Amino acid sequence: MSVRVVALAKQVPEYYRTTAEILPFLDTWLQDQEPRFIKKVKKIFEQAAVDKRYSIMSPEEVFSHTSFEERNRIYAREGIKLAGSCLQKALEKANWKAEDLDYIITVSCTGIMIPSLDAYLINALHLRQDIVRLPVTEMGCAAGVSGMIYAKNFLKANPGKRAAVVAMESPTATFQLQDFSMANIVSAAIFGDGCATVLLSAHPDDQGPEMIAEEMYHFYDATQLMGFELCNNGLQMVLDVAVPDQIESHFPEIIHPFLEKNGLTIADIEHMVFHPGGKKIIQIVESLFGNLGKNINETKSVLREYGNMSSATVLYVLERFMEQEQQPGTLGLMLSFGPGFSAQRILLKW
Known about the structure:
The chain has helices at 19-29, 35-46, 59-62, 68-94, 117-125, 143-157, 182-190, 243-261, 279-289, 297-306, 313-322, and strands at residues 4-11, 15-18, 52-55, 103-107, 132-136, 162-169, 194-201, 210-218, 226-231, 234-239, 271-274, 331-338, 342-349. It is of the alpha/beta class.
């Protein structure tokens, strides 16, 4: 029994700005800081390899003294709309009806909702009353791939069923106006908001690339590298400067044993469907695999056009390969990293 990726859709919020358009807002935000520090922050934004990012809030709202309560209210209100539109778009792509879904996984780490997002989607799209729900809230950038892994496990146990993974993220809602740390500045420079939905199926009539293997990899003693601290002002970014070096040191163990278990080497992989964590991580991947003739051009393009949208971003990368005509037997490797610290991997075969 095979589990296949049937359709993928994305949805972005209404507000967007280029990096050049964001710079004047930095002048206002940083007006009381030292000139050298202001220059450094602008350089971080200009060299982040992000040309444009979308947001559920206008730039004026992002760079204002908006309370945690109000930002989270916007996150919930706009997130429900984004996710509903995105799921509907994916269903139309697959030519499925809302009642065809047996399982829904919603993924988000950038706000707090109880009931979780899936409950609102059940009402908005009139999903079945017996649909199985799973909200995934604390896995960060890795959760898009994690959600697909959880969906496959459900579908393997329930042949003929269908599932949706909806990843909705708003990192701009977590921006801390009073925090001038490098973690807050770097995250503001690279992150953007967005939503993606991937539909998976164990139904014999459905077609798409097959998930032929999946695995998680957990770093020991690395919980301090990435995440959020819940403070009075909201979700405060934790982003250690050691993240790229940690990823680089673990890369051989993340990639090669996983492929070897499936009788493969990196030479057999046609498509690198990697999460664009940031410019430094992209440079590390290119240095490791560029001489093997591998590229992550789609990953770089998504980062440039949308920024890092946490869990949704790798699904934007996958969509690009889904929209291309592929030869039968083509292999793709999905990879994302997240708090914990962890790496999530999926092997796809067209």
